[in-house]
Amino acid sequence: MNIILTGFEPFNGSTSNPSAEVIKTFPVESFSDHNIIREILPVDREKAVTWLSKTIQEIRPEIILLLGEATNRPVVSIEKVAINWMDYRIADNSGVQVRDQAVMEDGPAAYFSTLPVNLILSQLRAAQIPAEISLSAGAYLCNQVFYSSLYYVDRMDNKSLCGFLHLPSLPEQVIEKNQNAPSMSLDTSLKAITIALQACIQCYSGD
Predict the structure, then answer these.
(1) How many domains does the chain have?
(2) Taking CA 111 as the corner, what is the angle to CA 107 and CA 115, rounded to the nearest 5 degrees?
């Protein structure tokens, strides 16, 4: 099974990103029966989407699991909906701040995640990991790559399981910025994404 697993590089003045750290340390050896392509995407409105478009078309993955950071969220957020809209609250790492633009001019208003969101939620909670189903992935790059990936899958008539999970900030990020904000350890986030991917494989395989 071909699997794409992505996170994002640090942004907004941070020196780390929980999604990137999960990508770096993900236990691929536990999924040796599968071809897992891991990528830390640039926080760049063009480069991130270009990589996804090219890779999705080349390998036609069965599963696309996209990760990002949600500052101030205390739990793992399993995103349900991607909207066809970009309204960046801050500039990306290239200095571009997109305002009031569609992600894809010829795309529908929204796509629903094709991940087994309820299965992932129940398995995360069974593992004592705080989690929720979220109805908003925002209007920044996380939503953009979420929507774009579903758009490419739809245009290819591919039956991929595709979706996005937001992770809380790491404790060291909160300390670094001297914030009073929620966080989650890397070990917990890594365990959460391992469980989420196992749930996706289980669902796709029909087990």
Answers:
(1) 1
(2) 140
